[in-house]
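Records of this kind hold a single protein each, on a pair of labelled lines. With that in mind, the following record should read easily:
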Amino acid sequence: MSVSILIVDDEPDVAELFRQRFRRETRQGAYVLLFAASGEEALERLASEIQPQLIVILSDINMPGMDGLELLRVIKERRPALPVMMVTAYGDDERRRRAAQFGAREFVTKPVDFDLLKAHLQLLPASPGG
């Protein structure tokens, strides 16, 4: 059974990095990776029917325009049960505190530890093997 993951990051190389690191899982049909380059684009994607089932959003905190914290707040208003993991290159405790208040499920620090991230994904409901 395939499930979708939406990755939101304004850095173009992030999409290629995730494609490389999830190559085996996408080839095996476990995950479908979707990408958005901004918070606004992520909300547009969420407004349409995402198939297969979307199980998590991974969002960068620092983005131009709508930042990850604002995106998180809007997602939690519209789809409170959808897990959101925040990705950050900074150890900003204030942003982490605010993200936790808004309902962030996990924090992923850049550079991403993909083995740890995959372990977190396995714990999500409807995740392959989860």
